[in-house]
Amino acid sequence: MNAPAPDTIRPIRFDDGRLHLLDQRLLPAESRENTYDDPQAVAEAIRDMVVRGAPAIGIAAAFGVVLACQRVRDSSPAAWRPAVAKAIDPLAASRPTAVNLFWALDRMRAVIDGCPSIAEACSATLAEAQAMLEADIAANRRMGATGAALIEPGRAVLTHCNTGSLATGGFGTALGVIRSAWGEGRVTEIFADETRPWLQGSRLTAWELLRDGIPVQLLCEGAAASLLRSGRVGWVIVGADRIAANGDAANKIGTYGLALLARAHGVGFMVVAPRSTIDFRIGEGAEIPIEMRAESEVLGLGGHPVAAAGARAWNPAFDVTPASLIDVIVTDHGAVHHPDREGLAVLQRRPGD
Ligand code: MRU
C-alpha cells in the first residue's frame, strides 16, 4: 500500500470571533464542540483536559489571547495593555509541563508589544494564532515524512498516550509518523497503550485512527513488556511535552518505562516533537516541572470510584526519559540521532521558526 496518510480531524477552530474546541473528555462516546469567548474559560478548558496535548495546548492558549484582546476592544489606550496582560496569567498557569504553552504565549506577547493600538492587536493576534495553527499542521506533515523514512518495513509499532490530530493542530507528531508510515505500507500493525488514568490511548488514539480507517490494537500498559519481547515491534514512537537541552524528554507518565523496555528488548525508541517543544533554557530533564494531578483520577475510572475506600494515590501526569534511552528525536527541523547537547544545539541553529 502507498496512499496519502488520511487525516480528517481538527480539534481547534476559530470562527466568527469565537474559539471552538472538540471536548476530548467526552470522546469517543460523544463528539461535541464547546465554544469560548472568554480567555479565563479557555484556561479552564486546558486545565480540565477539554483540549490536551502539548502543541494543541499552545495553539488553544494563543487563541485565548485573541479573545483577551477582543474583550477589551473598547478600552482606553492606557487600559487595554494591562488588561490583556492580566488575562494571559491564567492561561500561563493552566498546565505546567508542556513548554509549547509558554512558547505560544511568548509569541503572542511579542505580537502585542509590537501593536500601537488595541484594534491592531485584535487583528495581529488573530493572524498570529491562525498562522501558528497552520504552521503546526505543516510541521507535523514534515515530521511524518522524516520519521516514517526511518522505519524499516515489515514490523509493528507501539505508541503511548495520544499524539495525533487531537493533540495538535492536526495530523499529529508521533501519530503523524505512524499515519505516514502506515500510508507508505511500512508498518504491519499499530499498537497503542490504553494510557491510564485518562485513557488517551483507548479513548482518543483509537478513535482518531479508526475514523481515518487505520486499524489499531490496544493494550494495557502492563502488557507492553511481553509485546516488546515478542519481536513484533520495530519501534516505540512517542511525543514529548518538553525536551531539555541535553535531549532528556518529558512525556505522558509511562513513557520512561517504555523506553527502558525498548532498550532491554532491542526495539528502537523514537521521540517526535516540533522544535518548539525543546526548552533550550533547561539543561536537563530533572529541571522540567512535572504536573501532579488529582488523586481521584487514579482512584476512579471514567468518573466512577473503583479503588478501595481510603486508598491514596500518586498521580504524576508525566515522566522524563533520559536522552541515553532515545535512539532518535524527530523534529520539524530534522532528526537528531543519539540525542545529546551538541546534537540539539545544531538543531537550534537551523533557520526557521
Ligand atoms: O496530559 P496530556 O494528554 O496533555 O498529555 C499529552 C502527552 O503526553 C503527549 O504525548 C504530548 O503532549 C505530545 S502531543 C503531540
Number of contiguous helices:
11
What is the count of β-strands? 16
Spatial ordering of strands, largest sheet? 6-5-4-7-10-15-16
CATH-derived topology of the largest domain: Rossmann fold
What does this structure look like?
The chain folds into 2 domains: 129 residues, Four Helix Bundle (Hemerythrin (Met), subunit A) (Up-down Bundle); 208 residues, Translation initiation factor eif-2b, domain 2 (Rossmann fold, 3-Layer(aba) Sandwich), CATH 3.40.50. Helix content is 39%, strand content 18%. The strands form 4 sheets. Strands 6-5-4-7-10-15-16 form a 7-stranded mixed β-sheet, with helices on both faces. Strands 11-8-9-14 form a 4-stranded mixed β-sheet, covered by helices on one side. Strand 5, helix 7 and strand 6 form a beta-alpha-beta unit. Helix 1 packs parallel to helix 3, helix 2 runs antiparallel to helix 3 and helix 4 runs antiparallel to helix 5. The structure holds 5-S-methyl-1-O-phosphono-5-thio-D-ribulose. The site of 5-S-methyl-1-O-phosphono-5-thio-D-ribulose has 17 residues, from helix 2 and strand 9. 5-S-methyl-1-O-phosphono-5-thio-D-ribulose binds next to helix 2 and strand 9.
